[in-house]
Amino acid sequence: MLIHLIILIPLAGALISLLAGKNNQSLSKNIALLGSLISLVVFIYAAIQHQAGNTELLSLNKPWLPEMNLALKFSVDGISLLLIALSQVLIPLIILSTSKIEYHKSHLLYALILVTQSALVGVFSAKDIFLFYFFFEAALVPAYFIALNWGNKESSKASFKMFIYTIFGSLIMLVALVFLYSKGQTADMDALISTAEFMPSGVQRALFWAFLLAFAIKMPLFPMHTWQPDAYTTSPTPATMLLSGLLSKMGVYGLIRIALPLSPWAAEHYSVIVIGMAVIGLIYGSIIAIKQDSIKRLIAYSSFAHMGLMAAGVFSGNIEGLQGAVFQMLAHGVNAVGLFFVAKIIFERTGSRSLSSLGGLNKTAPALSIFFMIILLGSVALPLTNGFVGEFLMLKGLFEKHQLLGIIAGLSIILGAVYMLRLFQKTMFGESNELTESVEDVSGIEKLTLAIISGLVILMGVFPNVLLKVSEPASEALLNLLAKI
Amino acid sequence: MSLIALIPLFPLIGFLINGLGYKKIPKAIVAPVGIGAALLSFITTVLVYFQFKADGQTIIQPLFDWITVGGLNISFAFQIDQLSIIMLFIITGVGTLIHLYSKGYMSHDEGYGKFFAYLNLFLFSMLLLVMGANYLIMFIGWEGVGLCSYLLIGFWNKRSDFGDAARKAFIMNRVGDLGFLIGIFLIIRQFGTLEYLSVFEQAQGLEMGNISIMFITFCLFIGAMGKSAQIPLFTWLPDAMAGPTPVSALIHAATMVTSGIYMVVRSNVLYTLSPDTLEFIAWIGTLTALLAASIALFQNDIKKVLAYSTVSQLGYMFIGLGVMAYTSGFFHVITHAFFKALLFLGAGSVIHAMSDEQDISKMGGLWSKIKITAATFLIGTIAISGLPPFAGFFSKDEILAHVFEHNKAMWALAMVGSFMTAFYMFRLFFLTFTGKFRGTKEQEDHLHESPSSMTIPLIVLAGLSIVGGFIGFPEIFHLPHALADFLSPLYDGSRAVNPEFGLVHLSHSTEWMLMGFSVLLAAVALGVAWFIYVKKETQPADPSQLGGIKKVLADKYYLDEAYQIAFVKPVEKASQFFYSTIDKKAIDRVVEGTGDLTSLLNRLSTKLQTGSTGFYILVMSIAVAAILILNMGTEIADQFFSIFNAQTK
């Protein structure tokens, strides 16, 4: 019975940070870091126990509103476990990455980051559809507030756009969930899933598109993506990291946990259409990234492109595609946080995010350029980095599902190299100029954070089986469920 | 841990030491670590060779399971057999010499430690490529060497055109890699595994001309076109000369670019099963050999000449593979590694002596000034021109004999290329080393022979370029073909699927005649070059002064420009269009429009409440009709989807 502790510890940390760390950035930061790390340690213990067969620790089933048949029900399988692990690892890194900038009302910032952590654990473990919905919504709120509080005029406009977009999707999902609840007289996910296959196709169709819309906006998928580049580009970096590294994964997770099992027939029926959309987004986003001048916007489009491939992997309906997508969620989370961190470091030191005004940084900041290169290689899916495993499996799965779309999706590995190497060349190579010639290399906490991220990029790429084995039974179970249709 | 795993481990450790300690480790330690890693790897290779030779059985060394999904398990395992052992000797042997050479060549460079770290990382990747026991480990190396090539071409990245050259190399290789990856997917689909032994064993049960094998071999060959610089993916290699010269020798001549040939020989069973792919390979090789040789005729940059020559020689190797003379193609890989590494290192020594001048129109008369470099360069030139008894003669002649048997027209074209090769190489030699000095006074005063760390590798490679061909005597000499005997077990599969495999129908007299003819041709080319550049002392023309066909050749048939127009520009245009028109105008307009629409609907809906019953009835009937029509619409759409879905299965 540790799942609620894992959710509550960050919340407690948030509270303490709010009360004790007022106007003291380093204190509030340390409290936040401690809170997230304690939660991480408890989780690691519980996860090891869970894998050893002691599944009690990470599950909870208490009545919530018994008269309405709602329960506080949490439990995890391998996929949940990995995504919780991702949140638990990335949140401390995101907190660490805030090192250099002085934020006003910093205690509030750290509290918001910790609230996100709690909410994410909730999303990835909730087994009651309304509980899931609650956490799904709650996770977004902090990022919105961070953008409002610490961003500029542009970012509040962008985050408002994001908010409208996602609220729109969420409301439609809510209608679908209420419908399911009223039909089944239960909000228990497992119970609903076990009866989902008997639902008439027309109902499934409607449910499927409702779910898809909500999750496609969150990821985002083409053509529901236009909030994303603006939000990622203009938001303060902690919010961008939360959005790209973690919140986008809720969309993919929702597809796996809700859309596929709750409308299985429709999911299979429309799979090629969804994959088609996803692949369009993949190529479209990659091509746009090629000409971007803003580092953040370039990474934002690259991130959007990668999400497309993940959706395609999920809908390929085979073990390679699904396992690849799960693995890629982890890899992409790590890499996106890493890339945005590098973008932040460059901006803090040069005052510029524009590729046309940068250059020559590998002379003045060699350590930064090495870390950047490693994370970038993960992002372009070089073998023995984390990006390769997911992309290889997803492309393989997609190729088996639909050969032509698989090959088209494969073009993204060429396009990815084009825009990423351009990003590297324009920042790191070339002659240094007045902006870049006196730049100080990374050191201390920054170096540590980058080293952890780079280490993850390589370790995950060399020993992917450690993670793949965790999610394999859950992926198999989902595919078996779909195979019954 | 076994000996085998140590071979790639040493360079990896060398890379980590010099990489992590970059700028902290003193120069005096950098080179010993870098060179030592390569040398230890070479020594281990020798030990492994004896271990392997003891019983001659293929050794599989599994380390751990790398990727396991569903029924597919890809192990991280190494395979030692005849093919990988020879590649190991080339990579670690030539590699060690080039590491040694770099000690002198790069001694004044501020990125000394970085350079050795990259070279070690390259060795590591290249070793994975040839040692892997399945296609995905090969793919690790395949992409890994691409990365190192990128890093080393862009080594002097202050110049933006060097950075561009690096990027071009990586991206063109990636185009090929996508083909390779699809080949891998097809292999998994066909065989359910990627392990060589299992794939080739299963393949032996298939019929010649099997269509899925044809697709597999074709896709894998796309990968080879990228890595081994064949038409249409070869234009990155000449640009890759932006990297330091030892890199050009090691990566862009002796090892990495031959990985395409390695891959085909490794997969020989599959290729033997697909005569169509082989025919395609042979023609791509022929065209590449001719095209690149013709471009080399009018280049004035010493490294560019050698680069086009490399592309052209790789073409010859593929011709050999394409006519199913796998051993001959691979033989040329070996001899080429010797003489091309020699020529590049020699060029480096010339550039070093000439204070970083690469233009041969500003050289001349260097023979007396840098004798060791000149003499060894001459040996390399003779070897590549195919004059006996140097290394290139044996391997190239063997390929040409097989081509003659396969297709006379192809043979004739290959002979034309061969003539051009001897011509441009001797043109290069004469313009550089004979005649009068054409450079500046400062350059002339500064002329000096390179330090011993650079000349020793030259001498060793010159020796190998002289005797390297003796591992494969032609049958008509009544001497053993040691290489063919050694490699023979590799082709058991090919022999099993094609009874014709390895049989030669040429009569001895034809073979003598062919040999005589090709030697004569090379000698004539030598004579012509001598007549033009020594006797008549013709100065190399400034490329901008050339006209007609010469200009087209000097400008590389405008292929780079064509690629710009065909691929780069359209993608950039699309990027602009997608971003500013579709994203910013179309989609965002719709999103903002929904907001406007809501308020519009609000205003309209107040107007709807007219109080007239007739109007309400009208609206109701329209609504009912709309529902019915929409319903039909969804049914039609469903029909459409089911057809679409059915087609995809």
TrEMBL record, chain A:
GO molecular function: NADH dehydrogenase (ubiquinone) activity; NADH dehydrogenase activity; ubiquinone binding
Keyword S-adenosyl-L-methionine appears in the UniProt entry: no
Domain NADH:quinone oxidoreductase/Mrp antiporter transmembrane: 126-411
Entry membrane topology: Multi-pass membrane protein
Alphabetized UniProt keyword annotations: Membrane, Transmembrane, Transmembrane helix
Main location: membrane
Recorded GO CC terms: endomembrane system; membrane
Subcellular location per the Swiss-Prot or TrEMBL entry: Endomembrane system; Membrane
Biological process terms in GO annotation: ATP synthesis coupled electron transport; electron transport coupled proton transport
Transmembrane parts of this sequence: 6-24, 31-50, 70-96, 108-124, 130-150, 162-182, 202-221, 241-260, 272-291, 298-319, 325-347, 367-384, 404-424
Tree of life domain: Bacteria
InterPro entries in UniProt: NADH_Q_OxRdtase_chainM/4, NADH_UbQ_OxRdtase, ND/Mrp_TM
Family note: Belongs to the complex I subunit 4 family.
Protein name (Swiss-Prot/TrEMBL): NADH dehydrogenase
Organism of origin: Jiulongibacter sediminis
Lineage: Bacteria, Pseudomonadati, Bacteroidota, Cytophagia, Cytophagales
From TrEMBL, chain B:
GO molecular function: NADH dehydrogenase (ubiquinone) activity; NADH dehydrogenase activity
Topological category with respect to the lipid bilayer: Multi-pass membrane protein
Family matches, as Pfam families: Proton_antipo_M, Proton_antipo_N
InterPro entries named among the record's database cross-references: NADHpl_OxRdtase_5_subgr (IPR018393), ND/Mrp_TM (IPR001750), NU5C-like (IPR003945), Proton_antipo_N (IPR001516)
Keywords, comma-separated and alphabetical: Membrane, Transmembrane, Transmembrane helix, Ubiquinone
Membrane-traversing stretches: 29-50, 86-103, 115-133, 139-157, 169-188, 208-226, 247-265, 280-298, 305-324, 330-351, 372-391, 411-433, 454-473, 512-534, 613-632
Listed name of the protein: NADH:ubiquinone oxidoreductase subunit L
Gene3D superfamilies: 1.20.5.2700
Residue ranges of every copy of the NADH:quinone oxidoreductase/Mrp antiporter transmembrane domain listed in the record: 134-421
Localization in the cell: Endomembrane system; Membrane
Gene Ontology CC entries for this record: endomembrane system; membrane
Coiled coil (residue ranges): none
NADH-Ubiquinone oxidoreductase (complex I) chain 5 N-terminal domain boundaries: 66-116
GO-annotated biological processes: ATP synthesis coupled electron transport; electron transport coupled proton transport
